[in-house]
Amino acid sequence: MKRAFILLLLTGCAPACEDAPLAPASAPPAFVVELTERGSLVGSADGGALAPPSSALVLYTAEGAIASDRWLDTRTRWEGARGTFDALDALPWHQVPGRVTLALAEPPSLVELAPESGAPPRNIALPFGGAPLDWAMVGDAPGEAAVLSRTDGLGTMQPGSETVRAIDLEGLAGEGTLPARVAPFPGTSLVAVGLERPEELPGAVAIVDAESGAVSLIELTGLRSCTEVSAMVGAAQVAVLCAGEADGAPSERAEAGLVLLEAGETVRVVTTRTGIAPAPTEALVGMSFGWVAALSRGSEGEPDRLLAVNPVSGARVMLRAELWSLRDGPALGEGAFDPNTRELWWPSVQLGIARFRLGDDWEALSPLRPPACQRAPVRRLRHLP
Does the chain have fewer CB atoms within 10 Å around its N or its C terminus? Predict the structure, then answer.
């Protein structure tokens, strides 16, 4: 399928970026940061599909220095490339040491890039079907097992063999069930998969053993749309973010809920905390000391709100509230946490990258601005372990 041309909303001129695409980073990066121009979409001359806004990936060190101001952008191609990365492609939440993993929809593939060495990328071709949404790997050795979420279903794979074994998700969780985000239970071969189920079914999470392929279901009564999952730091735990059931009139907004799962001899529910924020709440990030961060999405008249929540103690801290921008739309994006520095970085149209440090209390740090050579605001962040 041909890509369309794109019309961007440009404001002024910016200096050219110094770094050539996919050049080795100047220092070990700790974050990959995506900047995306909101722009306007225009159909191609032959009536093809609309093109997405263009994106660029920037690499930052843990200290906040820019290691590459344009490491990759929408136009970047590499040797053996089966496609290019753009704003509509998934940026997997689970990244593995020494690599940046991208999920390309056209054609379906995973790409692993080495930011420090500039080594040739590794293309993992996927069977044609749904676009990859997210994945999680267990183990560090070559041929590690992985769980792959796609728009058409769920599967396990051995990246070395580039084959996917389908999981009968509808047989497990009901007709119409689709997978969403995936997250590993640290230190185990188990992976949690967030699920989107029909409204008449309770929220649920699939538990997959990436090595054996065994799969089970945990239903979460009183919650629905449990699509967001994120690994916690320092424990074999995964946090789950769900939409709650609205009380009263159907027009009322449901309150989001948090569930904490722990892997032992079995996977058990540690705690359930309801009413943490009005839905939709998204962009769940597991952190240290039992804390998670999540974004309560606003609207043109209601600010986006970034919350830190401890599902066990019930503590909740409002880290930032920001009104939408007339030019750039939603104010806050998808953030990431560095367990080494205990810093939470979060995209902000107004600030660039808002930063907070988790200690005895939450401390707001000086924000980081995007590279001067980039016009677009920061939209997504992923930590590179």
Answer: N
Torsion, Cα of 103, 107, 109, 112 (10° steps): -70
Q: Write out the residue range of the structural domain in which residue 27 sits.
A: 1-123+334-385
pLDDT tens-place string over residues 86-99: 888 999 999 988 89
Q: Is residue 159 part of a domain?
A: no
Is residue 191's pLDDT more than 90? yes
- Answer whether 93's CB lies under 8 Å from 134's CB: yes
In a domain, 37, yes or no: yes
CB atoms within 10 A of CB 264: 9
Q: 280: which DSSP letter?
A: P
Which amino acid is residue 195, in one-letter code? Answer: L
Q: State the amino acid at position 358 in one-letter form.
A: L
Is the predicted pLDDT of residue 12 greater than 60, yes or no? no
Q: DSSP labels for 73-123?
A: ETT---TT-S----TTSB--S---TT-EEEEETTTTEEEEE-TTT-PPPEE
Task: Enter the DSSP assignment of 289.
Answer: T
pLDDT higher than 50, residue 6: no
Q: Which residue has the tokens 């089970």?
A: 216
* Count of domains observed in the chain: 1
For the stretch 31-66, pLDDT in tens is 999 999 864 333 334 444 555 678 999 999 999 999
CB 92 within 8 A of CB 137: no
* Average pLDDT across the chain, whole number: 87
pLDDT at 253: 64
| Residue 287 domain-assigned (yes or no) | no
The rounded percent of the chain whose pLDDT value lies above 90 is 65
Which CA distances in Å does 300 have to 52, 90, 218, 282?
22, 25, 36, 17
User: Of how many residues is the chain composed?
Assistant: 385
| 364 in a structural domain | yes
Instruction: Compute CA distances 259 → 220, 270, 313, whole Å.
Output: 8, 8, 12
Residue 172, SS3?
helix
CA end-to-end distance (rounded Å), the chain = 35
